[in-house]
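# step 3/5: fold
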Amino acid sequence: MKILINGKELDFTLGDEKNIGQVLAEIESWLSNSGHVISKLSIDDSVISASQIEDAFEMNIDTVKSLEIHTDTRPDLTSSSLLALFEDIKEYESLDYEKKAGFFENWKKSAQAAYICRQMPDLFSLCVKTFLHGEVTLAYLSSVTEERLHELNDPLNEILKIEPLLDDICTRLVDLPLDIQTGKDIKAAQTINLFAAVTDKIFRIYYELSIQGYFVIDNESEKEQMTKLIGEFTNILKELMESFERNDLVLVGDLAEYEASVKIRELYNVIVKNSRSHK
């Protein structure tokens, strides 16, 4: 099977891959390091539409002569998908009740839906809850979409803007053990949810800063320190969320006050320190 990327044949040696989906998974992993994503796919000179992707993934590689891939930079493709989602929201809002009922089935076949599903699954989930189930308002979906565009277009400004929110969540994490002891369950749950949301945002912006050239660490020891810090913070986050789900409130309080509040601040400071204002 011949594989081409943007018209150039790829020197790719097949391993244990049996179908097109497995081959594409390997290629996407390789592309991600350069900030590129697959934007168009052709098999044996036939363009594969969004609705045909699942069937294409199952195709045995022995039955395919050529796999042609076109790529775009991730920021460009993300931007176009988010802008298209804005138009989808406007279209959905203009429909009557009967047409809204069938909107999602057509929307999920679109290129932007397929991209959002792969690259931004949390946003895709909101789209499902909005377009299919009506559990999320159009205004909220629109605000989240706008937030993602801001993170994409100006990640450095976005990371600086959240410092007041970070101060608030660190204070709430320190206060969490007392909230638990005094029966303020609603506030405690809000703190955990807010902490998870802020963490997700920091990681999203960190990724944008990295692939867009804002985030630079020249010193090898600092790179190792950053990798270690991210690993430590990820483990703390996982342990905190699991403890909360088990209702192990003593451990939740200890992790929040002595670990999470410290590490999220440390991670934020390192990201800001190593970000530059011009690409």
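# step 4/5: annotate
The CA atoms of residues 118 and 211 lie 18 Å apart.
# step 5/5: archive (pending)
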